[in-house]
Records
---
Amino acid sequence: MTQVIKRDGTTTKFDSRKIENAILKAMRYGSGVCDSDVAASIAAEITLDYCTFPEEKQPTVYEIEEKVYKKLIKYGHELTARAYEEYRAVQSFKRQSNTTDESILSLVRNMNEEVANENSNKNATMASTQRDLIAGEVSKDISRRKLIPAHIVQAHDNGAIHFHDMDYSISPIFNCCLVNIADMLDNGTVINAKLVESPKSFQVACTVVTQIIAQISSGQYGGQSLNVKHLGKYLAKSRARYEEMLADLDEEIRERKVKEFLQRELESGVQTIQYQINTLMTTNGQSPFVTLFLEIEPGHEYEEEIAMIVNEILVQRHLGIKNEKGVYITPAFPKLVYVLDENNVPKDSKYRYVTDSAIKCSAKRLYPDYISAKEMRKIYEGNVFSPMGCRSFLAPWKDENGEYKFEGRFNMGVVTLNLVQVALTAEGDMDKFWNILDERLALCKEALLTRYELLKSATSDISPIHWQFGGLARLGKHEPIAPLLENGYATISLGYIGMYEMTKLMMNESHTSGRGKEFCVEVIKKLKAATDSWKKETGLGFGLYGTPAESLCYRFCKIDLARFGEIEDITAKGYYTNSYHVDVRENIDAFSKLLFEADFQKISTGGCISYVEIPNMNKNLEALDQLVTFIYENIQYAEFNTKSDYCHVCSYDGEIIINDDIEWECPQCGNKDKSKMNVTRRTCGYLGENYFNLGKTKEIKSRVLHL
């Protein structure tokens, strides 16, 4: 036998190596158990089966595949046989011309729960959001069939990995970034082909910033961050203008009037940013995912102006924004990250009053989150800089002058590894665990390189605000962006989820125990070593990233539940635990939790954040103050989770509970209509205000207080 009939009717030369490779792929990316001897034996047997066939009786590809499946069963490789069948199904799917009808129609009819609840800040019932989600389903379909290799699609479908934001893969756009807002404000930018020159006042600068935020958000799918210290110069410009305008007045009167006018402009400018961000709707069908980095940099030329701006942002956030009933509630955006440093933490420090505003704000509105400048400098070569969006961090990088550069850099995308499934497949066998982990890491590397390949051919024309007009670069028209993807300038992230469940399966104890933590540290160091080796090999900025898992905590668990069954503390609870975090049900005090998780932040340098669950602390700010000081001394990046809800029916202002039927319910009047309440919860690093998938809702219900 020399020829095989292909699916399209044409013939090709029989090649036993193709059979062997297909079996090995099914083993590697499906069951995780590789046995090259079995693969070779099956390939040899099939070759022998068909070698006596007469030339006129050529076998078909389908017949050969059926034989492979049966022989895998014969050799006791049931999981591989199933994986092989799934691989065939994926390949068949990739040959189809239309596979989106059902998912799109169910989305329009509000019946596609998985897509509708994937992002807790997207209202899937609105036409503008549906338009983005429909486009995403089409993009996802084409990407799965035409752009992403079949075995990666299969691994994604099997829950071995998660190829994030597949709905945007067809477009050469990236994840998240640190906007070079200083360059855009100081040197001007272009929006919709219109030149926007450098502002002459703080109010105008704030307006320009909100326009930039909207444009940036529409050209990427992840979060963006801006350092508000760059607005200090423009508040100083406004001060100088008022001083000049009132120069003829008596000095005492002039100072009072300048202060009065400047405060009015400060309040107005900050209000512009807050209202614009919360009322803008980007082309992604949501408010911009934006983080304001509140850094009062010691010794900065405009240090005092920066402190004024930061404090006003905190004061206005504490007040909140009115809902449709005219009641002040907690907005989800912008996310606020406040930097704790030597000039604002000690009780006698110059800007301690700003930290007091931050603590008061966190108690009521959850934000700001906190960066310890002291701890961050230890990890990132003496530098302090913002996360991109909620938690993604850049690696230090120096330009041709040997200067560190962070603003104007970005993240290409994320692929997350399901650590729980590695442990489930290993069935308690430690040697098997490490072998499967190696195979899955190789798969993640290939998937991440696919992300790079999808981006590298893009030119600056794909998003002029990013690439041509200062957001990230000042490239010429039609200029390739590829050089900015390489040499570690941009990052690309290996995510992970389920350290707790993985340890429970392999060690039969929590990862907060001595043995459990040792095992977890060994695993996370292996992940970090993998990204370091990939970076050295390719020149790409691979980093290790603690995945937020807003919807992934449910997706992975649901897939593994169907495959491995209901397992107590693992699949039975309906969700997996975020990255390295302590199990949400574990009774542990706030200080111990932060101290435990701080060790993982030092390794997971491509992305991390830790939280503690606290009760209503509005009347006990002293205790919260102690916790903030503890963060400054012990952990790089942390946040507080509290409750900030409102019932439209009875005007209840407190915690809307999740009842035993996993429904949101007002404890005062029993209202269960989600359209008649405002609920804000921490879903990942961001706050969510449009409700959550079933798994995340179960996780929120399970959370215990740490204080």
Note: The chain is about 45% helix and 10% strand.
---
Amino acid sequence: MTDHRKMLVSAQVILYSDDRINENDAQECEKYFREAGFELGHRLADSFAITASVETFEQVFDCRIVIDDYGTHIDAGTDSTDYALPLGPLSDYLRHCLHAVTFTAPPDFGPTNF
């Protein structure tokens, strides 16, 4: 059985796009995730992708990650499926800059065996 905590997963970092943050803030957010062990995709407008092991996501966001038929999501302790990662464990500065960090839900249509 494969340890899912070593699997690589990706999430989308969505920055606030209003006057709240500037280019320097965006670069500082990227720097934080890079130094925390994430690989970063290119920033496009107000978002960029981060990729790391499940273990890294769990450590940085202080939550349990589940990978199942509903995709990659957090274990919120309820029957609901929550794709948004908790921002609470991050610094005040990062929370000021980040609108959300979220996994992508699988499509509601098409094949289900991907």
Note: The domain at 4-102 is CATH 3.30.70 (Alpha-Beta Plaits).
